[in-house]
Design a protein that fits this description.
Length: about 140
Amino acid sequence: MSNLEQTLSIIKPDAVERNLENEIKEMFKNKGFNIVKEKKIQIEKAEAEKFYKVHETKPFYNDLCAYLSSGPIVVMVIEKENAVLANRDLMGATNPKDAADGTIRKKYGISIDKNSVHGSDSIDNAKIEIDFFFKD
Ligand code: UDP
Ligand code: MG
């Protein structure tokens, strides 16, 4: 049975800064993802605070929001069968040290905060996050 899904991926400032945008997009394409929408933007800290509101009580929240708004990011809607889970698999663990071989974070992540990519963690959040960046 077909279960085509869309999810939100962000190439974070550490990766854009190191010119990894094309390499990371190739990893998505090689896994069968179609990039259906994309834009390179820089967001304000207040926007990052809204985007990461679920983490507002965490000790890393302020640094996280400062970081996400610190430079250009590439925001993408990516699509394939079971895209939400498939993207989490391809990203790897939050801490690159724990990420499996073949994952984006294993290959490119620098540290738990500079871990190169964001991906929605559920189908509901994928819809919310896609709307956050692409609702016109
Ligand atoms: N993060 C951090 N320190 C931590 C945990 C998370 O800086 O101890 C950052 C990291 O960039 C991570 C983001 O906060 O990607 C969101 O955390 P989450 O637990 O949702 O991880 P993710 O879904 O990105 O794997
Ligand atoms: Mg998360």
